Amino acid sequence: MNEKLRYWMLVLPGLAVMVIFYIWPVLNIWGISVTEPAAGLGNYTRMFDSRAVQVSFVLTFRIAAITTVACLILGYVVAYTIANFAGRVRPLMLGLVLLPFWVSVLIRSFAWIVLLGRSGLVNDTLIGAGLIATPIRFMHNELGVLIAMVHVMLPFAVLPMLTNMRGISDSYMKAARGLGASEWRAFREVYFPQTLPGVFSGGLLVFVLSLGFYVTPALLGGGRVMMISEYITYQIQEFLNWGLGAALSVVLLLATALVLLVAARFVNLRKTFLERSS
Length: 278
Hints:
Elements: H1 2-33, H2 42-49, H3 51-84, H4 90-98, H5 105-116, H6 121-128, H7 142-166, H8 171-178, H9 183-211, H10 215-221, H11 228-239, H12 242-263, H13 269-277
C-alpha cells in the first residue's frame, strides 16, 4: 500500500501538469471549433471548402518538406565532418551548431531581413562583384522563407545525426576497406545505412517543427507566403473568427499526429524525442 501511495504521489503531479497545460487547452480549442459562432461542424465545412485554406495547407507542407530535405543534406555534411574529421576543432564546431539556440528566433529572422533586403548585404555584395545588375527579390516570397527556415532548423537535423554517427565504430569502415572496397563503396554500403536512424530522426524533428512554425515565415514572407500557422493568427486577430481558427488548429494538430503515426513505423519516436530533450 505504501509503495502504491508513493507511486501515485510521484505520478499525479506530472499527470496534473499534463492535463492542465496540455490536454485541457487542446480540448478547449476543439470545443471552440464546434461551438463558435454556432454549434455544429460549420467551421470544418467552411475550412474544407475554402480555396485559401487548401492553398495554405499545401504551401505549409511544401515548405516543410523542402526545408527538411535541405536541412538533411546540409546537416549530414556538417554532422559527418564533426564526427569524423573535426579533431581538435570538434568542440568549436559543435559550439557553432549550438550557438543559434542561444539567440532568439525573432532576432535571427530580423537578421535575415537585413541580409536579404533589396539593399541588404547579399544584394550589395552580388552587385559589387558584378554578378547581377539589379537586386534579387529574396523577401516576401518562398525563397527568402526557405533560406531563413533552413538556417533556423538546421541544428535540429545536425544533432540527431551527429549523435548517431558518434556511435558508429570506425572498425566497420576499416574492415570494408581491408576487404577491397573503395572508400565510396564502403561509405555507401557500410557507413551510410548505419546513419539512417539519425537521418530519419532529424528529418522528423525538422518536418514536424516546420509545420507549425510562425515567426520566420511571417516576417520573411510579409503576408504573401501564408503558412497555416500565420493563417490561423490572421483569422483570429483580424477577423476575430475564433471558430475557424480553432478548427484549423485542430486539423493541423491531427495532421502532425498523422505524420508522427506514419513515422513511428520507421523511427523509434521514444528514442528520438528523449535524445532531443537530453
